[in-house]
Amino acid sequence: MKQTLLKVENLEVKFKTLEGMQTAVQGVSFDVAQGEVFCLVGESGCGKSLTSLSIMGLVEKPGIVEADAIVLDGQDISHLKEEKLRELRGNKMSMIFQEPLTSLNPLFTVGNQMDEVFRLHQKANRAKAKQMSVEMLRFVGIPDPEDVYKRYPAALSGGMRQRVMIAMALSCRPKLLIADEPTTALDVTIQKQILKLMKDLRRELGTSIIFITHDLGVVAEMADRVAVMYAGQIVEQASVYDLFQKPLHPYTEGLINSTIRLGDGRRRLPTIAGTVPPISKMVSGCRFHPRCPYATPACRENAPPVIEIQGRMVRCIRYAKEHKQEGGVHV
Amino acid sequence: MGRYLLKRVVQIIPVLLILTLIIFCLVYVAGDPVALMLPPEAGEQAKAALREALGLDKPFYEQFFIYIGNLLRGDFGTSYQYNQDALSLVLERMPYSLQLAGVSLACSVVVGIVLGVAAAHFRNSPFDLLVNGFAALGQALPGFWVAIMLILLFAVKLQLLPVSGSGTWQNLVLPAATLTLVTSAKIIPLVRSNMIEVMQQDYIRTARSKGLRGSTVVFKHAFKNTLVPVITIIAMQLPTLIGGALITETIFAWPGLGMLIYRGVANLDMTVVQAGVMAVALITIVANLISDIAYCIIDPTIKYQ
Lengths: 331, 305
Description:
Chain A has about 325 residues and is α/β, with parallel strands linked by helices. Chain A has helices at about 50-55, 80-90, 110-120, 125-140, 145-150, 160-170, 190-205, 215-220, 240-245, 250-255, 295-300, 315-325, and strands spanning about 5-15, 20-35, 35-40, 65, 70, 75, 95, 175-180, 210-215, 225-230, 235-240, 305-310, 310-315. The longest helix of chain A has 18 residues, at about 190-205. The two termini of chain A are about 25 Å apart. Chain B has about 300 residues and is mostly helical. Helix content of chain B is about 75%, strand content about 0%. Chain B has 13 helices and 2 strands; from the N terminus they run ααααββααααααααα. The interface of A and B includes residues 86, 87 and 152 of A.
């Protein structure tokens, strides 16, 4: 077993609204091992991005982040002051975002924006920062990095800009890279290139990656382990192989069933009926029960416990029963 | 950039021609200056003689071309009121106007940007409410009323500053304060709303994710993105402050361009009005040109073709 790099325990993100306190992320706990690619999967609005922003300390007011612990490389960062957290950001942990087109400041050159990181965290002078930036651009496979260094983001394509973002994020060789849907806004061929780049970089630098996506194809390609999120909670955690081989949670099952496979022919694609409940009107009991084909009256009443089975984790009452009665669903 | 600049400078020529025509037409229809220039008891013959001497008996287009010809030689005509060359009158008053406008604009920009950025940063706080209230008042209150209230308070009641006139820095304070209040009130809400919008952009999140200081994020990454609309409004205020501060200048007896034009209009001294308006128009054109150049420098994605 590899050493744990990040440990998140009981993370909660709440928002103070006019209708009272609303919880967007609840009871989220997971570990990321060194050099591991950990995928967070779920529909839009399920709390994937908020979870990652909480780790970075970038959740903005009126959001409130609470956690028992967020331990990065042996240091609990959940209660760090902004000043101390700033020293980690872009340095020990960094992040790339979904929209490469808008994630770079349009009024500064690529070089200017890249230099900032070196000048801030490595106290490099202008010339040294430039040299390091160009080196980094070359590292992420940008042809003619000296030229790109001088350009404004508007002169670059989406794929190029995402490469620049990756270069910027990896500048200080972070231990943790959070990638929030980095390929969603790109077309498939570029998507493929960026995924390959990230895999190569992980191999070369040994960076742990939290990869956020809603695309199960990307998960299958990238992940070592996967956490499936639904309505602000992690409902299942497993290795990528186990997850696709035998999904435990009905939601995971629904997600996997609703993907297209080669040779499907003229099959009607199954979908998960219903929609995610809004956080302001969260349902009682299991959050998935209104959409769950296996729902029982008990699901409506009691929030299901997190159950550990064979090194996997699932938040579903069916497996609790089975453990007690030695029957029902067999894993 | 160089070609663009040249193009913009060349474009000024037709603008100036049209402007000259408009100014000339306005004056042409404004009335017969001869009646004012001669004593009331002067006979028709004397009036006709003066008209002929001034070229006022010639047809409209001929007068216009003579006027343009004179302008090209730098001859703006003579003010009958001051018995002085109109151009030299304008040039004499210009430093006063530039001084008042410069100080007011500088103060407005500083006040507008500082309060606007601060209000955006502390949005929906009591401070933000206060700044918004100040901006709303500044836009709603007419300048002449503000001027009179400031005189009442600082010159009459407290006797800290002179009521009117020019020459010392104390004379500059009240008119500049009046103009600053009115002008900064236009800048504040613009800076505030732009700043709020920019702070929600993805690249601000990127900047923060790099670990940059809050002040670097606000003043480097966010502020530059709010500058284009702010420069637009500043460029729009400059001519208003130079030629259009006519009520403020009149109230404070500030001997600037505004007051010169006001007196010229009141006394149908059209050569002065023409020269004054022309000067303000030129300043407007130059201000626009400068702001266009500033856009190019700030935002490289703005391409002028």
